[in-house]
Amino acid sequence: MAKAVASIDQGTTSTRCILFDHTGSIKGITQKEHKQIYPKPGWVEHDPLEIWNCTKEVIQSTIRIAGVAQKEIAAIGVTNQRETTVVWDKHSGLPFYNAIVWQDTRTKAICDELAVEGGQDRFREKTGLPLATYFSGPKIKWILDNVDGVRKAAERGDAIFGNIDSWIIWWLTGGTKGGAHVTDVTNASRTMLMNLETLEWDLEILSTLSIPRQMLPRIVPSSDPNIWGYTAMEEDNKDAIPVCGDLGDQQAALVGQTCLNPGEAKNTYGTGCFMLLNTGTNIIPSKSGLLTTLAYKMGDHPAIYALEGSIAITGALVQWLRDNLGLIEKSGDIETLAQTVENNGGIYFVPAFSGLFAPYWRSDARGVIVGLTRYINKGHLARATLEATAYQTREVLDAMEADSNVAIKSLKVDGGMVHNDLLMQFQSDILGVPVVRPRITETTALGTAYAAGLAVKFWEREDDLRSNWQADKTWTPKMTDKLRHELFHGWLKAVERTFDWIE
Hints:
Helices cover 33% and strands 22% of the residues. It has helices at residues 48-66, 108-115, 124-127, 136-146, 150-156, 164-172, 185-188, 203-209, 249-256, 315-325, 333-338, 378-404, 421-431, 443-455, 462-468, 481-496; strands spanning 4-10, 14-20, 26-33, 45-46, 73-80, 85-89, 99-100, 159-163, 182-184, 194-195, 200-201, 218-220, 229-230, 242-248, 265-269, 273-280, 291-296, 304-311, 348-350, 368-370, 411-415, 435-438, 471-475.
């Protein structure tokens, strides 16, 4: 009898495997970091083979830790850092180039050239996305144009593309021995190549970017009863696990938070910050700098859409203070340091390291610290670092309410930074609404476990998922309206200082 569902959570800095039981509780967890590769300013890469090796290790370790037999695992789902692009040889399984990470900005010239005709919103009506370095399509084109032999291999049908979900699922289900080359609708919607209405690759956009159609994976539901394949990591494969769940990390968190009704929203605090609002079966074009994207598709049910606000740098800013400046020894020290001062001392830190994402989409922006005086110390810098996450979230929430005409009454939160009480209280203060953390904060992994488990009837219906969700802690606003307005006004002035730095 099945006791658990396995989830692979392949993130920007690490890979995890988590086993969940029927109540959504964690039975076992293992995490392994991988290298961050920075060949040039603005370039960010990962080694895809290192990521696959990490994936194998964490699966085997988690099964061992949990004390669950492989035959007792009902299914396995994958969630992943979206937009991170891999092109590999389907015969050898070797990447032609490192994975180009979602934060990478090398494709700015490609995006600028595409914008000459039709502007930044050239493909937005079809894809819901502006032209930006963030998305996979321009990254594929860069590899085809700049790595020797790849275009010819793609035209022969030997070079294939995937975001990290496709790469892992391909290897999980056999790799060079017949692995499934698939991606779900949520990941496909982040390539800038999929039509939101048809849920198919758009041939006109492919032609414009000179991307051969045969490179691309088959688009499938996020939760698919038509199992894509079975785990093929061992010679004795009698207890192989069905692979049938796939969600981009932010959509997975939406499902894990059970934001399954239109108007429900969540915010995930990780390397970046990502707020999603469920808009049901309605495709809502954004007029406020948000992305229109897929939320999920469960089996044969209609696709569910979302509005998303993507922020590039939040938790990564804390890592920057730790690794580049040495102000703290470990990320958790940021709260203690920030508590040594009562406020930000008048400074703002806008972390436009990779340009600005929602709601601006300014690739010409770069990071600034403004308002510096002799009074400022490292405590103020730590506090401004945390506050930057909350201010950016406020901008996204304001845009979301403008587009949807829905006033968000509370915000469900998850991710590593939600254990920072100082940040969560300031987040509630600057939004003016309650902020709610669930009992299980590993909502990204839980969401894709739900997708895989629904496909094999480990969970029968969506109500089973809702019954698992429980609040752990709620923060309520304590700030006056006057102070909230003054602080946010200062933030908006600081953001303007980042514009037009790259000419």
